[in-house]
Amino acid sequence: MDAEMKSLIERHRLEPHPEGGWYREVYRSSLHVESSRVAAMRPAMTHIYFLLGRGECSRFHRVAHDELWHFYAGAPLNIYMLDGNAVTTSTLGPTTEPMALVRAGVYQAAETTGAYTLVGCSVAPGFDFADFTFLADSPAALAAVKGHAEEYMHLV
Predict the structure, then answer these.
(1) Is the pLDDT at 12 greater than 80, yes or no?
(2) What are the DSSP E strand ranges found in 44-85?
(3) 32 lies in which domain range?
(4) Is the pTM higher than 0.70?
């Protein structure tokens, strides 16, 4: 593990994330709103720090609401979005875009292009693990990747 990455984990008190990488929730709104997508109340917004190191990835998953990714430090980060059979890529970094949007319900995955990348992820209405699913748990979506995007199978 890169020394700077280890320092970031300690400084920001990050823990392993189920999708891969390291995270800590740093904001959960006290305001709650009704989410029509999940027919339940959710915080208006949540925000996490998220860190990926070389060889780690955020496995393909989706959340029920829009997610904004914000670049903070390290190497550029590739975010892959699977919508139907098409995979698109957004790159966040110091010399590229500092922010990317993943629309609600779109499968997403990410990996760093260097030793590490530190980003922030904001979800509105706020994130809840009840609204989180892995691509590997959806046979139809998994078949779309296998049939059209074999180069992304390491992110499943």
Answers:
(1) yes
(2) 46-53, 58-62, 66-74, 77-83
(3) 3-155
(4) yes
